[in-house]
């Protein structure tokens, strides 16, 4: 994992450290999957405050940390905002088609169950 060099810089795993089991664990939670789905359709990075999650702020922070530490997202500070981006290139290089399959399955499940 790349170590943070300052308090404002967050540690992320390098591409070769991203593990399938960590990725699957991160995507197995409905709140985290919702974040990933939003990021997958976004044209740019999204701030943490963009997401209206049905959890407390501390739980939201935990979910973003799990996504970052598993290699699903990249987080950087821009001013006072923590910005989030999907690490699609890294994930597609390591696990071709997996992210798209998960996102397609999540959308199909939402349609089938009528959940948001």
Main beta sheet, described? 3 strands, antiparallel
**Continuous helix count:** 5
List the secondary-structure elements in sequence, H or E. Answer: HHEHEEHH
Major β-sheet strand ordering: 1-3-2
Give the second-level CATH assignment, the architecture.
Orthogonal Bundle
Percent of residues in helices: 40-55%
**Annotated CATH homologous superfamily:** Winged helix-like DNA-binding domain superfamily/Winged helix DNA-binding domain
How much of the polypeptide forms β-strand, as a percent range?
5-15%
User: N- to C-terminal separation?
Assistant: 34 Å
Total number of β-strand segments?
3
The average pLDDT value, as a whole number, equals 93
Which regions are unreliable across 5 or more consecutive residues at pLDDT < 50? Answer: none
Radius of gyration: 14 Å
CATH top-level class: Mainly Alpha
Shape: globular
């Amino acid at each position: 994992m790349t170590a943070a060099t300052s308090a404002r810089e967050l540690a992320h795993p390098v591409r070769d450290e991203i593990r399938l089991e960590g990725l699957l664990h991160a995507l197995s939670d409905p709140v985290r999957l919702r974040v990933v789905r939003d990021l997958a359709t976004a044209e740019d990075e999204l701030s943490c405050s963009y997401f209206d999650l049905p959890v407390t702020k501390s739980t939201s922070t935990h979910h973003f940390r799990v996504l970052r530490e598993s290699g699903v997202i990249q987080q950087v500070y821009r001013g006072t905002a923590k910005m989030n981006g999907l690490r699609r290139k890294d994930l597609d290089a390591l696990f071709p088609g997996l992210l798209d399959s998960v996102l397609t399955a999540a959308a199909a499940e939402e349609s089938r169950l009528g959940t948001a």
